[in-house]
Design goal:
Blueprint (H helix, E strand, L loop, with lengths): L8 E4 L5 H12 L4 E6 L6 H7 L3 E5 L5 H10 L5 E4 L16 H27 L4 E5 L14 H19 L5 E6 L18 H14 L3 E3 L2 H12 L1 H19 L2
Parallel strand pairs: 1-2, 1-4, 2-3, 4-5, 5-6, 6-7
Helix pairs in contact: 1-6, 3-4, 4-5, 7-8
Length: 254
């Protein structure tokens, strides 16, 4: 389901920095009429409002709070494109962490938050002609990454939900795209060594996915390599990721 971004109204969760910020700017330069910047702290998005002027609206939004999702849906009733970009990575192991609070919080944001946004905005997208949803996911949702703790399982769940949501919303003409992201130069990935992609490039690929109505796209080299390794020898990949956990424990003194 191809989509024309000219004159569209977009909402980007976690839109004040990183990939979300890049999406906001990409929509503005790509001809969108209006962009809602979803952010937990509106003060962190004032620079985008200054850049976009009347085309940018700051929307207080914590996707882990159902009441805030409901409020956002009551305000942003002109949305035709929803980008679920908000994410949480708390860097706690599933077993060695003293509680499961971190894993629960990651699931609340990365899975239930995404699902809640899709549920709230599905009728709005339908009323506005179908539109599009883009879920910013992770190569950690293609394979289990022990070092990521609860983050990887939450992205597995989000990817599965994306497939199910796509099937449910097809009848109303809403395209649902999954962006599989590897290593990107954002604050969330500050601890990751090696080459990182620019957020601007991820956003550019995301807009291409919207325009083409793509189901799922690997956005960068790491994502492509993870998928290729999974197809080639999944057990070898599992062992390699387990060794990475051991190496990290040695380097950090865990």
């Amino acid at each position: 389901m191809a989509f024309d971004l000219q004159g569209a109204t977009a909402l980007v969760t976690g839109g004040n920095r990183g990939i979300g910020e890049a999406f906001v700017r990409a929509f503005l330069s790509g001809g969108a009429a209006k962009v809602y910047v979803g952010t937990r702290d509106p003060a962190n998005a004032t620079h985008l409002a200054e850049e976009g002027g009347e085309r940018v609206a700051i929307l207080p939004l914590d996707v882990a709070d159902p009441a805030q999702i409901e409020q956002a849906a009551s305000v942003a009733r002109d949305v035709s494109v929803l980008v679920n970009n908000a994410g949480a990575f708390l860097n706690q192991r599933l077993i060695e962490s003293p509680t499961i609070d971190a894993a629960r919080a990651e699931m609340e944001v990365n899975y239930f938050g995404l699902l809640g946004m899709c549920r709230a905005f599905a009728p709005i997208l339908k009323a506005n002609g179908g539109g599009a949803i883009v879920n910013v996911l992770s190569s950690g949702g293609l394979v289990a990454v022990p070092a990521m703790g609860g983050y990887s399982p939450s992205k597995f769940a989000a990817r599965a939900a994306t497939t199910s949501i796509r099937a449910e919303l097809a009848k109303q003409g809403t395209s649902v795209s999954a962006l599989i992201v590897g290593s990107v130069d954002t604050r969330m990935a500050a601890h990751v060594a090696g080459a990182k992609e620019r957020p601007e490039d991820i956003a550019r690929i995301g807009l291409s996915a919207i325009k083409r109505g793509a189901d799922e796209i690997d956005t960068d080299r790491m994502a492509m390599e993870v998928r290729a390794a999974q197809a080639r020898d999944p057990k070898a990949q599992e062992r390699a990721l387990a060794r990475m956990l051991d190496m990290e424990e040695i380097s950090t003194g865990r």
